[in-house]
Write a structure and sequence with these properties.
Structural class: alpha+beta
Number of helices: 6
Shape: globular
Helix content: 25-40%
Radius of gyration: 17 Å
Largest sheet: 6 strands, mixed
Amino acid sequence: ILFAGGDTRFLQYAFDKLSLPGVTSEAGVASSSLGELPAVRLQYDPARTKLKRLLGQYWRSIDPTAAAGSFGDAGPNVIWASEADRPIAETSRRRLGFSGLFYDPKAQTRRAIATQIADAAGAKFTAAPEEEQHWAASHAEEFAKLDKATGRAKWFEKTYKPYKTDACENRTHRLSGSLDVCYSVDGMEQPYVRFS
């Protein structure tokens, strides 16, 4: 599966820090009908790591509502999924959209999820040189400065701040009818959001 979400130094680090069994990451460029985009290719063993866990980490590593790029990076956020993985990715995106994370109670609006899901068969991946792989691990100080300078750290803290289960009571908005559910976005243990 391929993920595009801006600067691969940040995206690859997000997956690497999980240290999930059977998961390897490789930074590079994905070429498709959407153009050439910086991307991270993940290879994973579904018997050891669920795709929804990887998708949960991806959502926590980008601004999924940014259609033309976020944090100063140009280009859309894209998931290139296989035919088997696509329904899982689409369900994850749909659940993220209804999670309440991007709901503005003052304006009573919800920002739409702009991340695209495309066919992996239509993308060609070219790996970056070895010295560009796992960049954050060997450039920790510079990586921390970049993280702060781009505004990522502040945005993620504000948007994805962990909520306890009882926070469901405090983050409600009406979607339709009698829907009254509390669940987590795929792969994320938190936040939980109540729909009523």
